[in-house]
């Protein structure tokens, strides 16, 4: 059981390393990583929030206009 | 390919039988296309780095952060000496991963090398040596035949020569600088290449840059490959001739350019060109590709142009007898007008040579800038080349030279085949000892180098100015000094690093781990001749 938990944490660490390498954050200083991740998180969370709040209303009005 | 381990008993005929099979002519060259997602992610990575670079530059400009680069201390009211003293790329991208480039070493750069460990407190602006030396397998030196060693017959000859000749002649070739060993070297090299005469210079780069101006001038046309080395480009520019480039290894494009050039003549006056010189390289060191010599020779004969082949990386390393691309393609050496090469790579020394017909070499002896102004070669350097040549040609009575050449060919095939089958994108010809493996993203350049060093392999990773922006790579240079255990260690390390950093981009081959490969196939193919 313990080895599968360890493997899971290793997998999460591997995923984090892929994120750092593909976005070139691997070569940046820690405060730059925090800055970029904060910005990315802010953009994604704004998009998700807007989708959750506005999509049902928009979809309902689209169905009403076209039916 | 025949598995020849069950062949005849006596060692002579065994090595002959092995050599026939080892050098069965398989000329396969491949450059797999960049996967689109990799190119997009690479460009995005550079965009993020540029944006953050601008932010840091702004912080440095307003004084929030201190300037760590060198700045131009020009006095007030003087015009600035440099536009931007250290450019944007160097400040913001190169310095962040500077610890993987220019690594100092602490031992002979043979098959194994000791890399000095450097630590940095302020993100690579300054370094401190920790004193620790990391022993690692050397996969970055151009030590193709394994002559870079500090023991053995070559280094003994070099030491004896210092006692006999001293270190320098303190003179140029035109003055009192032509020693006996220079004549011996030149006649030996001419015999090795099967041409009439040869001349040797002290520096390989200078051989190209300073001798192309003696061969071409104003009113001539130089057709050079797009991926030619900087020394050839510099020499061509210095000569004053018109330079046109053709696509890399593309014989149809070369023919089109030649055709157009001969029909239209010189640019403004439309007079015929005085001469046309085609410059190609034997092995291109960043791609690992070989030039298509028979087709280029056919074109050159048809359009009556001259051919200059730069065999810096291929002399000694390519071909069944180690005589370079001429030997590999089995063409007549008299068809190539100017053979050029260097002694730095396969012979473990320094310097360059130009070889060809006696009339050409006599002309170069008189008119070359390098022969006239640069100091002549030093005694231990030349004696190292002479003893290496004697070993390769078999003149010292053993078949050590032939064994080295075959060991290199086996190593190359073994290493390349496994990397290819594991799913990495490997560029170049199957027979070239230069193995570039693609890593497209900038952050992975640093990651691959550091992780390989942790696992005991010193590799060379190259990024932007030397290659395209989106095509960074790690370049392995194999050597006859590498044993099968070293190659296995390196492949295991590359397999782990490839998994950690996710370097397996190939779409043609399935992605396999090292233990998934069928070991028996590769071991049977690897003929151990020791």
Automatic annotation (TrEMBL), chain A:
It is a multi-pass membrane protein. Pfam families: SPT_ssu-like (PF11779). GO terms for cellular component: endoplasmic reticulum membrane; serine palmitoyltransferase complex. It is found in: Endoplasmic reticulum membrane. The keyword Lipid metabolism applies. GO terms for molecular function: serine C-palmitoyltransferase activity. Pathway: Lipid metabolism. One of its GO terms (biological process) is ceramide biosynthetic process. InterPro entries: Ser_palmitoyltrfase_ssu-like, SPT_small_subunit. Keywords: Endoplasmic reticulum, Lipid metabolism, Membrane, Sphingolipid metabolism, Transmembrane, Transmembrane helix. The chain crosses the membrane at residues 12-28, 34-57. Belongs to the SPTSS family. SPTSSA subfamily. This is Serine palmitoyltransferase small subunit B. It comes from Rotaria sordida.
From TrEMBL, chain B:
It is found in: Endoplasmic reticulum; Membrane. It holds the Pfam family Aminotran_1_2. InterPro entries: Aminotrans_II_pyridoxalP_BS, Aminotransferase_I/II_large, AON_synthase_class-II, PyrdxlP-dep_Trfase, PyrdxlP-dep_Trfase_major, PyrdxlP-dep_Trfase_small. Its EC number is 2.3.1.50. Signal peptide: none annotated. It catalyses: L-serine + hexadecanoyl-CoA + H(+) = 3-oxosphinganine + CO2 + CoA. The lineage of its organism: Eukaryota, Metazoa, Spiralia, Gnathifera, Rotifera. Its cofactor is pyridoxal 5'-phosphate. It is an enzyme of class 2 (transferase). Pathway: Lipid metabolism; sphingolipid metabolism; Sphingolipid metabolism. Residues 137-493 form the Aminotransferase class I/classII large domain. One of its GO terms (molecular function) is pyridoxal phosphate binding. This is serine C-palmitoyltransferase. GO terms for biological process: ceramide biosynthetic process; sphingosine biosynthetic process. PROSITE patterns: AA_TRANSFER_CLASS_2. It comes from Rotaria sordida. Belongs to the class-II pyridoxal-phosphate-dependent aminotransferase family. GO terms for cellular component: endoplasmic reticulum; membrane; serine palmitoyltransferase complex. Keywords: Acyltransferase, Endoplasmic reticulum, Lipid metabolism, Membrane, Pyridoxal phosphate, Sphingolipid metabolism, Transferase, Transmembrane, Transmembrane helix.
